[in-house]
Amino acid sequence: MWVAPPFQRLLDRYIPGWRADNLSLRYAMSIPAKEIWSAHAQCKARLVDYVARHLKVKLDPKAFTIGFGRRATAYKRADLVFRDLDRLKKIASTVGSFQIVYAGKAHPQDFPGKELIRKVFEASRQLGRKVRVVYLPNYDIDVAKILIPGVDVWLNTPQLPHEASGTSGMKAALNAVPSLSILDGWWIEGCVENLTGWAIQGKARKNARDTSAQDAEELYEKLQNVVLPMFYKDREQYVRIMLSALALNGSFFNTQRMVQEYLLKAYKR
User: Fold this and answer.
1) pLDDT tens per residue, range 85-94
2) Of 18, 54, 99, 109, which one has the fewest beta carbons inside 10 Å?
3) Distance (Å, whole) CA 203 – CA 182
């Protein structure tokens, strides 16, 4: 797991032993809110600059920014947020502006995955300046280091029950970025509503094959009534959630814990 340099410096100052003991990240709640927001602003500025240089698109550094970066394949439902474009435009115009930054490759033989990428580009064209949508090319570790720490929330919308883990959300938490995600994979354990982020829980039947309509509606409701109003009208609370994501999720969902559990529960049994 990787932590952006502005957050590394903060953690080195306030939790000197965090590199040797990831569990000590639970003390991140003691980091002053102004400093965590300043570190986040530096990461966001870097992302905005990267988009401007590589895509010639000017994002708004003050606008709420949603991140979505992972393998492009059908069950990940990269297009779920675009199910109702008019609804998105209305939320942006009445509640608060937002922009979405995508990244992720499809396997050369995954034609539905490549079709998803095409749908994202088409939605971007239709939304225009009302909701800026950009897609970062050549997604790799270096691009992830710019994208993940630079967004305000990490979006994950897999079709239940197909998410095996969801490590991108864990990387986001280590950079004080809360998640807005379907309750699947790691997020079933990691989500403490309104503390480490927010759950997308559609009201579809559990055995339904496709819950996209209900999940999209829940996503819009959370954006419109919870996440965006908090970001724009209660920044203090939003920063507390950022700190909680780092302290609670970052201290528990990390490589150190994984290796330790493999060692104790598998190799030494």
Assistant:
1) 999 999 999 9
2) 109
3) 12
Distant-in-sequence contacts of 106-112, Cβ < 8 A, 24+ apart: 106/71, 106/72, 106/73, 107/71, 107/73, 110/72, 110/73, 110/74, 112/73, 112/74
Domains of the chain, by residue range, sit at: 5-200+210-267
E strands, 146-220, in order: 153-156, 179-182, 197-200
Tell me the CATH number for domain 5-200+210-267: 3.40.50.2000
**pLDDT by residue (tens digit) across 95-132?**
999 999 999 999 999 999 999 999 999 999 999 999 99
Alpha-carbon gap, residue 144 to 103, rounded angstroms: 8
Please tell me whether the overall predicted TM-score, pTM, comes out greater than 0.85 for this model.
yes
Among 106, 132, 131, which residue's Cα sits nearest to residue 118?
106
Cβ(104)–Cβ(67) below 8 Å: no
Max Cα-Cα span within the chain? 58
Q: 3-class DSSP state for residue 130?
A: coil
